[in-house]
Amino acid sequence: MENKKTSQLENFTIDNEQKAGLTTNQGLKVAEDEFSLKAGLRGPTLMEDFHFREKMTHFDHERIPERVVHARGTGAHGIFQLYESLSQYTRADFLTDTSKTTPVFTRFSTVQGSKGSSDTVRDVRGFAVKFYTDEGNFDLVGNNMPVFFIQDAIKFPDLVHALKPEPHNEIPQGASAHDTFWDFIGQNPESAHMIMWLMSDRAIPRSLRMMEGFGVHTFRLINTLGKAHFVKFHWKPVLGMHSQVWDEAQRTAGKNPDFHRQDLYEAIEKGDYPEWELGLQVIAEEDEFKFDFDILDPTKLWPEEEIPVKIVGKMTLNRNVDNFFAETEQVAFHPGHVVPGIDFSNDPLLQGRLFSYTDTQLSRLGGPNFHQIPINQPVCPFHNNQRDGMHQMTIHHGKTSYHRNGLNNNQPEPVPADQGGYEHYQEKVEGRKIRGRSESFLDFYSQAKLFYNSLAPHERRHLISAFSFELGKCKSDLVKNNAVVLLNHIDRRVAEEVANNINAELPKENLESKSTKKSPALSMVNTIYKPDTKSVAVLLNGQPDTDQLTDWLKVLTEHKLNYSIIAAKIGSLKNNLKITETFDTADPSLFDAALLINNKSAIQPPVLEFIETTFKHCKPLAVALSDHQTLNQSRVSLKTEGVYDLLQTDIMKFIEGIAQDRFWIREQ
């Protein structure tokens, strides 16, 4: 399905795949492009060589400043389709008219690392969506976690300075496992909830297609009657939520640092379009103070069991970018880009972001006209009295550029609210000017404990291991001890285990939160399980029965599974089967399951390592062995859950195992 934005971007497209003569940027045809203009064949280059100077000058300025945070990202185009009208909550056209298909552009990113860092590091993931609505652009700029480290935007520079590579040696890249970050966490207990999310499996997603997204902040929806509701936005992946294990994520970073962006790109190219359903949590304005947490606090979530998520529409990403720089790198998001019917709350972190994002784009994109870059342009007309500035690409007609004016009949003129003009919600505000924090924001630990209480046993083990790894990389005893003090306010057992693992001091007094609440929605075990679009490594150790292999591969394909045939060397088999990878290029961390076909007396070392690593990472493993004794040399047992003998078991059992995703009992 084509989105509206396609035709608009085509107006700015140069098709370099078509036959064309080489020209300068001014359109002058160029006869030679391999040699600069010289005074004699061995003489000096001449300054008059305008072609050389233009080509080199453009090259020298090809790079723009990368984003301070979220530098490492990838994006795609798509559409949003509303399921049912939300007119009882909002006047926003794209949320009330179910007949409309709204084009979108979505960018996913990591936070800490530079553009050259790896995809699979432990980190928060940015999840930003630009809706090109008929009323203007609406940017939902969020993360894959519903809360944040800090409550007030004035501390954001401090958080980022602490998180980024340390300034004296620019180490580490793409990682939070270092002293300055954990020093910040230990000194800022409001981060307690977020750090539990960051140390959880949510921070190492299997795929960008398999993670949730959240708007993080509390917004307002306003209907045509002026009635307001508080709202939080959710993205629910149709494929369910799935993560890597830590060892797997590290292997992936070495084997394919572009794993996530490649996975997204290839899925779209194949037609396996990633999908997320949009969900809303809505609270009536009169119920603002009904809960045991402050709904404006960005370090708090709204438990889904108390405020259900209403599913209202679906986003489908169906087109890759044509040029990464022009689209993904130059796209400019801003939480202040809203449309009529959507407004802000007094969340102090959101309030600060409303300033910061425009300020950032002025630096990155060269001036105030970044909205004219094709990827940022709205699909609806825009008219105002803003003129000139760096990179002005619009030719304005007329002599007036001010309001009010009489020479041009006061055009362009403001649009009344009842005709679509944006009008801020008339919230009554009063109070003394003060720097401080509301007492309702002072509960730092109960939701951190809620998160821990809600995790499955294997998720708890992974979280404790993550804390132990991260703090184990710190050098300062002060930093380690303060982090354990923080954990002691959340859960005593976690504090004890981490302190023991990193040789830190455990506080004598148990100060853990007494909260016993759970929220099943916070555990990733309560997700969607299906085999769709997962990948299987088909390992050949010897010559396979190609007829049987063809039958198995057909079943995999019928269940929307991808596969790669891997052997000692690339080549062809009967039945038009292709060996596409070798054990030098493939790795078990890049696949969701493995199928071993062996008819030799021994399993070769690379194959053995492959199946053992698949087994260690708790993934489903199928085998077709001419002699079961060959498995004796490995750590893999056919009696283990999630291991399937395809000569004794129907392949559908293996596919059911792939849908199940992992067999965590192996960790025990």
TrEMBL record:
PROSITE patterns: CATALASE_1, CATALASE_2, CATALASE_3. Its cofactor is heme. Residues 23-411 form the Catalase core domain. It is an enzyme of class 1 (oxidoreductase). Keywords: Heme, Hydrogen peroxide, Iron, Metal-binding, Oxidoreductase, Peroxidase. It comes from the Bacteria. Pfam families: Catalase, Catalase-rel, Catalase_C. It catalyses: 2 H2O2 = O2 + 2 H2O. Belongs to the catalase family. HPII subfamily. Decomposes hydrogen peroxide into water and oxygen; serves to protect cells from the toxic effects of hydrogen peroxide. This is Catalase. It comes from Metabacillus fastidiosus.
